[in-house]
């Protein structure tokens, strides 16, 4: 087996361990057992548990960015704001995985790991409004709602039906792109 595919096998094993047993269960021994590798073979690819954890964060953020690009039909630097925001919302509306939520939560205490996730968010999600622009506010509210939908799906024992998630996403995309009430009609 080629080195790249062995590395991918290890990363997929880490995802399985986290999904099944949680993040604290990721140890060199557990990953070696899950993959059938020797500890020495695993250490060849990942010299420490910290290297394993960094690699899984990098792997999942790269996968997430690829999903966003597929949804937008372009890379973040070539997509329009509307395409990026729609891709973010639609990707959040897909079934969430527990592993991503656990890793994002863990990354909030580690700047290096948190930056991996934040960089993807910064490229794709509508930013917090700086001024009083109602359209910027609507885009940001649609982002917060999409984030909430994603968290709901990651935590719920009763995921929403796919059609309902798609309808919600379509409404949020319209909110992010559509006209808004005049600023004077919004509560102060």
UniProtKB/TrEMBL annotation:
It holds the Pfam family TetR_C_28. GO terms for molecular function: DNA-binding transcription factor activity; transcription cis-regulatory region binding. Gene3D superfamilies: Tetracycline Repressor, domain 2. Residues 4-64 form the HTH tetR-type domain. Keywords: DNA-binding, Transcription, Transcription regulation. InterPro entries: Homeodomain-like_sf, HTH-type_TetR-like_transc_reg, HTH_TetR, Tet_transcr_reg_TetR-rel_C_sf, TetR_CgmR_C. Residues 27-46 bind DNA. This is TetR family transcriptional regulator.
């Amino acid at each position: 087996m080629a080195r790249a595919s062995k590395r991918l096998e290890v990363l997929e094993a880490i995802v399985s361990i986290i999904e099944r047993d949680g993040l604290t269960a990721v140890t060199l021994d557990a990953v070696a057992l899950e993959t059938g590798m020797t500890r020495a073979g695993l250490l060849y690819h990942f010299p420490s548990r910290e290297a394993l954890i960094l690699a899984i964060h990098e792997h999942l953020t790269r996968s997430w960015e690829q999903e966003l690009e597929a949804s937008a039909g372009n890379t973040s630097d070539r997509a329009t704001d509307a395409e990026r925001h729609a891709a973010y919302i639609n990707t959040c509306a897909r079934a969430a995985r527990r592993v991503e939520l656990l890793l994002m939560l863990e990354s909030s205490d580690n700047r290096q790991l948190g930056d991996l996730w934040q960089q993807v968010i910064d490229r794709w999600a509508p930013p917090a409004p700086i001024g009083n622009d109602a359209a910027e506010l609507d885009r940001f509210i649609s982002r917060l709602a999409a984030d909430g939908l994603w968290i709901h799906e990651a935590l719920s024992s009763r995921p929403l039906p796919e059609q309902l998630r798609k309808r919600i996403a379509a409404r949020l995309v319209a909110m992010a792109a559509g006209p808004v009430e005049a600023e004077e009609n919004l509560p102060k």
